[in-house]
Amino acid sequence: MEKSSQYLYEYQNGKRMRNIGLLQVENQMDKSTLKIYAKQMDVVKGILFQKGNGETYLGCWEEQVLPVEKETDLVRQEAIEEYVVPSGAIYEKIQRQDLSRLPRREWKLANNSFLLHGFSNYHHLLYIEENGNIWIGVPGIYHEKEQMAAIAFGFGTFRRMIDVEIELKEEEKNTVEDFGYWCRQILVS
C-alpha cells in the first residue's frame, strides 16, 4: 500500500488564500482511497480533481453542475522545478538580518520557523530577483516530509538551482541528497 498526504488549500480567483485541511491518498492494487480532512469550509457542493495526465474528475451531490472548464485552469500544483537560470536574474546569498530590505509587511519572515530551521542548518538564505519578481529561498533537501513542512510555512516551490553561480561553502550545501531551495514569492506592491 502506498500512502501520501498533501495540504488542502482554499483558492479564490486562482490565488491560494489559506490552508484549510489535509488530503490523504491510499493506493492499493486496483483502487485508491481519498480522505479529506477540512475545517472552515462553507457548504461543500462537490469536488473536482485532476490527474497528472490531465484527466479531470468531478463529483456533485447537489442538482447543480460545477463549471469544469473554468475550475481546472485556476489551480496550479506547486511542485519541484528543475530551474534553469533566466538571463538577467539576480541571485544573492543573504543572511537572516538582510530580510529587513524586503517590504515591511514581509519582515515577519525573519521569525518563520521553516526559514529559521533552513538558515540554522545551512547558514544562509537565497535572494532571487527575476522578471520584476522577488523570491526568498530557504536551503534544504527535497523530501516528501520536508515538502509538507515547506508548504505549511509558505515555501511551496522547490527549485534545484542549475547553473547558478553562487559560491557555497561545504557547510552551506548538501552534496549527498537532493539539495536546492524552498522558495516563496515576495509581494512587492
What string, H for helix and E for strand, traces the elements in order? EEEEEHEEHEEHEE
Q: Helix coverage percent of residues?
A: 10-25%
Strand order of the largest sheet: 6-10-11-9-8-7
Number of helices: 3
Biggest sheet descriptor: 6 strands, mixed
The best one-word shape is globular
- Give the DSSP E fraction (strand runs of 2 or more residues): 35-45%
Describe this structure in words.
With 189 residues, the chain is mainly beta. The chain has 2 domains: 2-76, no CATH class; 81-186, no CATH class. Helix content is 13%, strand content 43%. It is built from 3 helices and 11 strands. It has helices at residues 68-72, 113-122, 144-152; strands spanning 2-12, 15-28, 31-38, 46-50, 56-60, 80-84, 90-94, 125-130, 133-141, 157-162, 179-186. The strands form 3 sheets. It has a 6-stranded mixed β-sheet with strand order 6-10-11-9-8-7. It has a 3-stranded antiparallel β-sheet with strand order 1-2-3.
